[in-house]
C-alpha cells in the first residue's frame, strides 16, 4: 500500500487540472500518466500566467509576498522561469502546437530588453538575482532557436546579447550560481556575442572543487548536500554541453555524464511509492523539479535506468503534487509544498520562484516516439521491495519499505553550513536526524522536538544540533557527532549518535555528555494532516502519533531513559504536510553527568503490521495472547534478564525496564515497538529487531 500524505480529492477529476486526458493503464500501468498529461499540465501552467503579464509581456507579477530582491526582479523571474517551460513545450512540439507561446515570449524579449519600455528588466549586476534568471533565458533561447531567436529582429537580438552580457566581469556567488554564468556566456558564444572563455572555464573548474565522489557535489564549500545536486549541479553541465556543442571539451562532457549516471543510481531512491520526493533541503517550493536529472540522464545518454522507470518516477512525482492541489485552482504554483506554506521558502523566494519547477518538463525535448515515452512504465525502487542504501559522500543512509512506499533519509552529513569559523546555526531542513517522503520537519525549529536530541535549558529551550561532524556511513549504520551548547554558556557538550536502520525501524544510539541534572529530550517523526489532528497515545517509555489514514510515528525508550516522561507535542500551522501536526517524544528528567548512553527506537510507518494494528494481528486483545506473552525473548525471561551484559553492566544502570519489559516499553508485541537491545559491559550495543535481524554497535 502507499499511504496518502494529505486528504486526497476524487482522483478521477482534478479541478485544478480540468483538461487532463484519460489515464492510459496499458502504457503507464503504475501512474496512468503519459506525455499527453505532461503537455496538458504545461499548458495549464502557462495559460494561468496570462492575467499577470505586464503590458509588454516581459514580466509576470504574481500575487504573494515579494522576495528580498523586490517586485521588479520578481517580475523578471516570472518571465524567465515560465519561458523555460514554454521553451520545452515549443521545442517538444517542433513549434507546431504553440504559435501563441512563440509570439508571447518573443514580444516579452523585445519589451524586456528595451530600456525605454515601462516593463524592461533590471540589469545584471554583481551577485544579483537577474543572474539566476539570465541562465533560464539563455537555455530557453537555445532550445527555441529556430522559432524565436532566428526570427527576432537584429536590434532585438543585440539588446538581448547586451543584457545577458552583464555577466562579463561580474562577481558571482560562489555556489551553483557559477553555472548560471557558464550557461549564459556559452549561449553568447553560440550566437557570436562577446563572452569570456576564461569565465566559462573557471566556472566549470569550480564545480570540480565541489565534487565529493559517487555522483555527489556539495553546493559550494562546506557540507551542503540537497536537491541542488539534482536541479543545478548535474543539470546545468548537461545543458551547457547542448549549447556548446563542438566547443565543449569532450573529456569534460564524458566526466559529467559519468557522474550523472552514478548520481541517478542514488537519486532514483528518493521518490516514495506515491511519487513524493523526500522532503529535505532548501528551495523545496520547486517541488517536482526534483525529476529534472532523470530526464537529463536520458537527454545526455547518461542513465542506466530503464526508460519505463524514468517515466514512472517523473510522472509519479508530477501526479503526486497534482492530486494534492498543485497547481492551485487558478493554475498557479504557490510558495509552499502542497498548500501555500511560507516556512519552506527562503529570502530569495518570490511569487514566481516556484516556476523553477519548469525544469521537470525537460523530458518534452525528447521526441514523442522515444522509448522513455513509449515503453511501459516499470516500478520504481520503493515499489519493488525494502531498500537500504548507504550514501557516504553526503553522509546519508536511505531506507524505504515497499509495504507503505515510504522513503526515509537518515542525515549524518549535511548541515548546509559554510566551513568554520562560520556560525553554526540550525535549519530545520538540514539539522534533523531524518527526513522522509511522507513527512516534513516542524518549522520553525527553535523549540520543535522532531527528529532531534537536545539538552534542555531551565526554561525548556533545546540545544541546536549545529555543525554535523560525520563519522561515516556503511551498511546499516550512519554516525556523527555534534556540539550541544546550552543558552548562556560557551561550553560545548558532545553528543555522538549512531543510527541503525532496518526496514521501517531506526535505532539511535546516543552517547550524551551533559552536566548532572540536565534534562535530555528526543523526538520522533512529526506527522501532519489538514483534515484532523493526529491521535496521540503514550505509555511508560513510549509515545505514538497516528494519522487517520494510518501513518504512524512511534518513539520507544530502549535503554538509559530511566524515569523518562513520554508525550506527544502538538502544533498547528508549522508543517508543510498539513495544518495539524504531532510529534512523539521522550524526556529524561535528569542526566546523571559524564557520558550517558541512551538508546531510542523511532518508527515511521503506514504498514498496519509494523504499527501493530489489532485487526492485522487477529487478536482483539493483542497483548493478552499467551503465545506472545510467553516468549522469553520478548518478556524478559530470567535467562535473558539475568545476563550481566544486559542488566549488570554499569552502562545499563541495572534497569530491567529498559531491556524488553512491557511495563517500560509500552506494547512490545507490535512490530513497531518490539525492538530490544542488549548493552555489554564494554558499552557495545546489540540490537534485536522484531523480524529477528540483529545489529551490533561497538563502543
Q: What's this entry about, in short?
A:
The protein is of the alpha+beta class and 699 residues long. The protein contains 21 helices and 22 strands. The protein starts with 34 loop residues before the first helix and ends with a strand.
Description of the molecule:
With 699 residues, this protein is an alpha+beta fold. It is 28% helix and 19% strand. It contains 21 helices and 22 strands. The strands form 5 sheets. The chain has an 8-stranded antiparallel beta sheet. A hairpin with a 5-residue loop joins strand 21 and strand 22. Helix 1 runs antiparallel to helix 2 (71-92). The longest helix is centred in the N-terminal third of the chain and has 22 residues, at 71-92.
- State the end-to-end CA separation: 38 Å
The low-confidence parts are 1-7, 615-670
Number of strands: 22
Give the oligomeric state: single chain
Average pLDDT taken over every residue:
91
Query: Helical segment tally?
Result: 21
